Every structure is written in structure tokens, then in C-alpha cells.
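Researcher: Quick one. two chains, 533 residues in total.
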Amino acid sequence: MEASITLKKIKEGFGNDVIEVDSPFQQDTVVIAPSALLPVATFLKEDPELQYNYLMDLTAVDYWKRKPRFEVVYHFLSVANSFRLRLKVPVAEPEPKVDSLTSLWPGANWYEREVYDMFGIQFTGHPDLRRILLYPEFEGHPLRKDYPIKRRQPLIGPKH
Amino acid sequence: MKAMEESTVLDAKVLELNMGPQHPSTHGVLRVKLKLDGERVVDAECIIGYLHRGVEKISENRSYIECVPYYDRTDYIAAVSNVYGFLLGVEAMMQIEVPKRAQYIRIMMTEFSRIASHLLWLATHAIDIGAMTVFLYCFREREEILKLFEALFGARLTTHAFRVGGLWKDLPPGFVEAARKFIDEFPERVDEYEQLLTKNRIWMARTQGIGVISGKEAIEWGLTGPVLRGSGVRHDVRKDRPYGGYEEFDFDVPVGENGDTYDRYLVRLEEMHQSRRIIQQVLDRLPDGPVRGKAPKIVKPPVGEYYSGIDGPRGELGYYIVSDGSAHPFRVRIRPPTFISLQVLRRLVKGHLMADVIAIIGTLDIVLGEVDR
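Model:
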């Protein structure tokens, strides 16, 4: 039931930007073009019927042999309806970049910093895009598939 | 301590003070850079990552079964429920059926782990604020739960509780009686904590009106679990999307009104009572039968992705699993509830006193192993 409402509404409103719609394992999934991310997210949040007011998760996956290489994955929740939706945005190399959702959800801040830290994906409009779990001198982005798991980096001591 | 630019320490208006990373009240290795005007907090910045072990990267290089013990060690205070979330995802992808008895035992142990986790939270939160006795009382009860864990799982902390398709082995002899004894005595014990704290004037002064966040704001910041429910939002995955058999049990989801530290304390206390109710029902209705379903020796979920979220003691713990059809996960993303709640610290402490920072860190119930992963 719920699958049809959300997916239908997105297809109606953003038909040209929707790349794929699917519900694997009964989990609604929509793939949209990166340019449509902010309008779609705003629509999901503000539509009175859907009310996806909760950004549950934000992460990325590195499909390194595919083109476009990255996929930024958003999980939304509507607290009122208890709907859930997975929104995916393909992001291409060489300069992976996607709009930031911090203007809609302040909580997106650390999620996006983590994705930047681990994958090197830039978020346009993010107020403070820095590494979060790793230290500034760290080279590379460890969750990329071409980052070797056994690579060592020098230990940086405290500076002050 | 470092004074701001163009001033000496003596005439500086704003002082920068490092709290942590090695400070007991930061519950691990959290470093908070505080900007203080006298005792008032002007700004705070969290610096995390001291405990980062790259669990998500490690997962990509291990088989599904080998991954499980690593998730024990993310949130080490509630290791049982961590494993539960991941296994539910894998089982849903592979359509493995878990026998009823195993489902019931899983729920019972998850609720025990919630009680143990809340007890540890209450103990440390109270001792941070200055109530020493509660600490000793809580550890007395937690010890009993850890003994139950040891009897069933063979370990107290890093339990590696569940297996794909059910449990490793059935309950040992005497377990049900011991569990029953614990839950029969437990309400009295909670009353003891309440006597010490709930109407205690010092406790109330230290927690009421501290770190207030409204329900709407809590949603926008992505808070989950008791922190969200303390602000009056009735959201619980166990009710919204019952998983693993929760729909068969009767329990309430407590919510607060004011969204302050005191309300979150009350919510967590009530959650312990509700967990006890669930365990009582499990023990009363525990069915017979096998504890492990038919699961293949090599776990290979079909190509696809799955998000499995459970309500852990600290909030929604999600596992986003991407499978490429091989025996190793292509990607596992852990949605850590406390990573998200920690970022609201900056918003909560502004304008409060230095001592309240300790209370607010305590009320968020962070576990740095999970924040940093």
C-alpha cells in the first residue's frame, strides 16, 4: 500500500528526474538524478500527505567498477505514517559532488562529514565540511574500494 | 587551557577549555572543546574518532558470519542488540525462518541487554552528577544480568549472542528460574533508585530544565530512542515496524513532556519496567522446539540491499547491507544512534553551566565505541 503512494507521488512530481523505482524486499527505493535531490527532499519533507520529516540515515556506496561510481543513499522516515523510503543519488567521478541537506535537516551535518571523510564526496552548501572520524593529515578515503585495507599511515601526535 | 587571541589569560573574556579525551565523565574518549565565559558555555565542539577502528571497512573483507563479533564491539554496552539488528537483515534477505523458541529467547535477551544498558547509564549518569549510592545499586543488578549472559552465551560483555537462523544453543538448565527470580525482584530495585533520585531535590535541580529540546527539533536533528521519546515523540521501531516477533508482546512506549534531562531519566526508568514486562511474557509463553532454523553453512544473501533497523537501548540502530551475491558483504553501513545524538550536544550545552555539560553528556547516553566505530 504505502509503496504505491510515495513512489507514485514522486513519479508524478519528478518524472523526468527519476531514474529507477523499485521495492526490493518491500523497501521502497527511488533513484533520482543529483540535480533533483534538493527539490525531491524538500517535497518529501513538506508534502502534507507523506511527511517524511525524519532523515534516518545518510551514507554512500562505492560501486567502483560501475559508472557513475558512487551512490549516496538516504533513508527517510515519516514519523506520522511510519513510512520509510530509500533515496539514492548516483554521483560520478572525478569530482564527486552532491547538494547538502543541512538546510533541511541540521542533523545531516555529521552524516555528510562522515561520507566526505570516508568517500571523499563533496557536499555543496555544507557549512563545515571537514574530516570527522579521521585526522586532517590522513591521506585518502578509506571506504573507497581502491583503498587497501592493510595500508598504514603515519601516526600524528597531538599538536597542542 | 588556551586564551583567545590578543589577550592574556588574565583579561581574556572567553576561555577555551579541553574536556577529555581522557576524562571519566566523557564516557570514553570524547574530547569536547568548550568555550567558556566564566562558567557559562558559549560554544562547544566535539572532536571524535579516537576509537575509530574501521568496522565498516573490516566488514567488507570478512564473511557475513565473521562480521558478527565485530558488531559486538561497536556498542559494547549493549552487544546483544547490535548483533540482532544485523542478523535480522541477513535473515530477511535470505528468507531464513527463525524458530519460534529462538525468536522468543532473542527478544528476552535483547530486553535484558536493554535493562543492563540502562542500568549502566543510570549508574554513570548519577555518579557524574554526584549520587554515589545509585552507582553501587545499579551495578548489583547489572551483575545478575551479566551472569545470565554468561550462562547462555559464555561471555559477559562481548557476547556474540545470536547466530544466523537462531541461537547457538538452547537455554542452560536453571536459566528460566534465574531469570524469573531476577524479574520478580527487579521492580523493588527500581523503586530503590527512584527513592534515591526521583524526588531528590539536588537531582531535580541538576536535571530539570537542563538540555531542553523540543520534539520537532529532536526529529530534525535525527535523535532516536529515549532522547527522542523524552521530548514527547512516540516513535519506537518495535511498535511501528515490529520485527522478530515483537508484535506478539504487550508493552507501552513511555514518553516525556518537557524534553529535558529529568524527563529522559524518567523515560529510561519506565523503559526498564516495560522491558521487564516483555521478559515476563516471554517466560510465561516460552514455546518448545528447536532454537536454530535451517541456515546454510556459507551465508550468501542474494544481490540487493536491505535496511534493517531495530530499537536498541540508545535508539534506532540500523544496518544497511549491500550484497553482491558473494560470501562477503559489499558494504555494511551501521547507523549508530549515538553518533547522531552526540552532534546535538553543541546545541544543548549553549548557555548552560560547565557542570551541566557533564549532565548533558550523560543524558545522551553515548558509547564512544559506537560513535567512532
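The interface with chain A takes residues 2, 48-49, 52, 54, 56-58, 60-61, 92-93, 219-223, 233, 235, 240-241, 304-307, 309, 316, 318, 320, 322, 330-331, 333, 335, 339-340, 342-344, 347, 372-373 of chain B (CB under 8 Å).
Researcher: Thanks, that's what I needed.
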